[in-house]
Amino acid sequence: MAKCRQSLINWSLLPGALASGLLMTVALLVFFSLWFFSPKLSINEIFSDIYIWHVINFTFFQAFLSAFFSIFSAIFLSKALYRRRFPGRMLFLQICAMTFVLPVIVVVFGILSVYGQTGWLSQFFQLFGLNYTFSVYGLPGIVMAHVFFNMPFATRILLQSLEDISIKQRQISSQLGLNEWQKFRILEWPYIRKQMLPTAALIFMLCFVSFSTVLALGGGPATTTIELAIYQALNYDFDPSRATLLSLIQLFFCITLMFLSKKNNTSFLISYSKHNYWCDPADNLFTCLYDSTLIITAILLLIPPLLAIVIDGLNSQVIQVFSHGSFWQATLTSLFIAICASILCIFLTMMLLWSSRELFLRRAIKLSQAIEITGLVILAMPGIVLSTGFFIFFNATIGIPQSPYILLMLTNALLAIPYAIKVLENPMRELAERYNVLCYSLAITGFNRLFMIELKVLKKPISEALAFSCIISIGDFGVVSLFGNEDFYTLPSYLYQQINGYRINDGAVTAMFLLLLCLCLFYFIQSMLSKDHD
Questions:
Q1: How far apart are CA 318 and CA 323, in angstroms?
Q2: Residue 73 lies in domain
Q3: Is the model's pTM score more than 0.85?
Q4: Tens of pLDDT, residues 231-289
Q5: Is 381 within a domain?
Q6: How far is CA 340 from CA 267, 337, 501, in A?
């Protein structure tokens, strides 16, 4: 490991400085655009605005409920998945990894097909002459959709925590005759608690800045979040002043939440950790039935909406939709933007982590953390706030660009950086701590070290980060909703136009295609780039 007496001024700090400079420039540009064009309101006027307080309260309330139910159900489901081995278990865990990054507008389409008033569940109730009263619109639908996205992710994280418990500890607990509650409280809870708080903080923040889910399932002014209110102020009312005020409020809360959860930051991998399986001798029929019920319930929550997307998409409009030139134009636009944005995201992330890691090895911990935080600062600027800042800036200066390709690539790349950091951070540091002394002794530095060692060893986490960022970008709807036009649209915006125009069958075909495209991209990127990984 490098010694602390080594100089901090080193060429290896340049990549991180450049990436941090770009991120901070964008952040400051957005902030000052919002601040400069914000309406001149006093604090008293803001506090007396009933609508703003209603929007803030609902945003916090739906985020709290979503995070609570996601984590609460994930604790029990992760325990059940740890204890049980069944055919298709690995496939189910892969689906749990995929749901976190699937396009929101596509999944919402599947949820409506299953739980809507004319959906599968309603038709099932009608077979028995029962009334189906559940409304997928409003708070229940928003929370259910958020649980669909985040509960599988939380389950994967907590399952990895349970697998970190050594077999010897479990054997000792069994020999001491601890019952199920005592095993959970004494043995499992300390491991779960370490990951539960940071995971809950991340889920809360993602639900707090949720846009597409609330836009599709909100159901009216009573269920409006801050992000949706910003979109409505720009698109429907064309009131930039109100949009900037709401954006500043959103920015304030996001920065506060980011710093509160900074100490609980954690990293995660999509890959499934292979630990030894522990078969509890105290296992019985009741526990088996209990676990099976939980797993079947989770499968019934996750699988039907995905199946509904495929089944509903195989309708009579398939050939007609596929024959439209606009459909393939939207597909090529989405692919081009997603691939470019994901590559840019990985470059910027590697630059940040490279310099952050070098500072960490030189014992400059605070400076290392400062560079890393610049990569996470985008978490404090959700897509709609970032887009609003750009919109206000360009509208007041050179005008809204006719072809927003570069703007969308940059914005999507920046929005994916926090996720890429969480995937790559620990592997890069562990690699440096393991091989740093050897590299220095063999004089392997700079680009030689990057191509000879780093890229080969980090092939798998890089492929995971690239797959994550690509799917996040291809499914983005919030950014293109502000900058898209009649001549420029992506697959999510094209799908939204179909649904808004009551072309449900056409929308079903597009949703099916977008889902299959994401699955293929996710598998292709991971399998091709991580090939021959040891």
A1: 9
A2: 57-308
A3: no
A4: 777 767 677 777 777 777 887 887 777 776 665 554 444 444 444 566 766 677 888 89
A5: yes
A6: 25, 5, 31
